[in-house]
């Protein structure tokens, strides 16, 4: 192959956003190596500038006429662009909330940012991976970086315990996922590219074979771990409670977005002959996640554990869009992940601020907070109410869109279950808001009584303030002014070729038999 053909097959310009992240990562390491700890004051802003540049590069790749690169290994289509953008945005907000937290923990900021950028890189590549080897390497890049971040505050025994649990359960889920995709490799006659696997399985007439069902179940187990879906959620509460709070903020959005991007691309491309089977499995996962996440969250006394079970429940809601299998369903997933990015990271920013000022994350210690810190109270209240789906906040419109897509697809009982569990979730969200706002001065907790003076000019607090205000504004207005986000989500699905055949088949089946059970 001559150079021109090689360059055409590689089409390396498709991964320019990831290339910018790699350059940023190397720059952070080199600057820290040369300047040492003196670079800590501005190295975070350097990383944020690189991530913003990556998002700008993603913008200019929208509607790319030739999105396939590396001989089919990577697909830079519009669906991948949106998910890559969500992951990069979550990394930006995470860095803003990390600067003060990492410095106060006594660990090095540059290494933390370098590992976070590596995790971001893995998530972005996973969102566009179109081949088994690329998928596995991207998944492991994200996973191993996440394990390192979880145990980053190595002097904290809770962080060490969380990292060990995460590593052991994560390694098991990776092994299961790898065994599942290795079966795909064998069933397809030695193919690794997604479309080629589907063609090989169809040609060999393995569409209803036991091997395909086993590979499907194992692949879904790996995806379920990444998106924190019950019953693959065992790591989530312990990791959320023990890991550094900025890390779980990133995992709750960035890792989840990458997992859903992989789910859409892998299931719709590789398993078109087993669509009823994977939809049935995901219905079970969605039911378990919505019920378990919301019910167990009621009994939590730690804010971080409550948000962990909330994250499990939110995964259940998003799965309704995946199960729908329609353009509205996939679009609703993207829209919900966009608004979830802002409202969830807004909540975690408030939790970090409170823990920095009081040293605790117990829900009872938030009593009477509005009398000492109005901005933090407002931010946490808005984010929790939005997560609960209270209008007119962003979360309300996200849930309406997902439930409407599910209803149109005939998932009536699943949507009704989602509505009931949403009402349950409102209770534990409003309980925290009530504790902060309604308590009388004499009912103020000891942590709030000893609350320090609010000073944003202390080192590292200004980025936290910026992150809080930006995510708070976005959470407040993203619902009311949601049309651009709706348009973005719809266009990303409509302009993604591999999603169209499945949606056409779904529409034809519904037209022939509108009463077909789901």
Automatic annotation (TrEMBL):
Supply the alphabetized keyword list.
Membrane, NAD, NADP, Plastoquinone, Quinone, Thylakoid, Translocase, Transmembrane, Transmembrane helix, Transport
**UniProt key word Methyltransferase:** no
Topology versus the membrane, per the UniProt entry? Multi-pass membrane protein
Q: Which Pfam families match?
A: Ndh2_N, Proton_antipo_M
Q: Which GO terms describe its biological process?
A: ATP synthesis coupled electron transport; photosynthesis, light reaction
**Mind telling me which residue stretches traverse the membrane in this protein?**
15-35, 42-61, 81-102, 109-126, 132-152, 164-186, 206-227, 247-268, 280-299, 306-327, 333-354, 375-404, 410-430, 464-486
Domain NAD(P)H-quinone oxidoreductase subunit 2 N-terminal intervals: 11-99
Q: Where in the cell is it found?
A: Cellular thylakoid membrane; Endomembrane system; Membrane
What's an example GO cellular component term for this entry?
A: endomembrane system
Q: Which domain of life is it from?
A: Bacteria
EC nos: 7.1.1.-
- What catalytic reaction does the record list? a plastoquinone + NADPH + (n+1) H(+)(in) = a plastoquinol + NADP(+) + n H(+)(out); a plastoquinone + NADH + (n+1) H(+)(in) = a plastoquinol + NAD(+) + n H(+)(out)
The record's GO molecular-function terms, alphabetically, read: NADH dehydrogenase (ubiquinone) activity; oxidoreductase activity, acting on NAD(P)H, quinone or similar compound as acceptor; quinone binding
Q: Which InterPro entries match?
A: NADH-Q_OxRdtase_suN/2 (IPR010096), ND/Mrp_TM (IPR001750), Ndh2_N (IPR045693)
Which ranges carry the NADH:quinone oxidoreductase/Mrp antiporter transmembrane domain?
Answer: 129-424
What is its quaternary makeup?
A: NDH-1 can be composed of about 15 different subunits; different subcomplexes with different compositions have been identified which probably have different functions.
What family does this chain come from, according to its entry? Belongs to the complex I subunit 2 family.
Q: Explain the purpose of this protein.
A: NDH-1 shuttles electrons from an unknown electron donor, via FMN and iron-sulfur (Fe-S) centers, to quinones in the respiratory and/or the photosynthetic chain. The immediate electron acceptor for the enzyme in this species is believed to be plastoquinone. Couples the redox reaction to proton translocation, and thus conserves the redox energy in a proton gradient. Cyanobacterial NDH-1 also plays a role in inorganic carbon-concentration. NDH-1 shuttles electrons from NAD(P)H, via FMN and iron-sulfur (Fe-S) centers, to quinones in the respiratory chain. The immediate electron acceptor for the enzyme in this species is believed to be plastoquinone. Couples the redox reaction to proton translocation (for every two electrons transferred, four hydrogen ions are translocated across the cytoplasmic membrane), and thus conserves the redox energy in a proton gradient.
Query: What is the name of this protein?
Result: NAD(P)H-quinone oxidoreductase subunit 2
Task: Please tell me the species this chain comes from.
Answer: Hassallia byssoidea VB512170
Phylogenetic lineage: Bacteria, Bacillati, Cyanobacteriota, Cyanophyceae, Nostocales
The gene designation is: ndhB
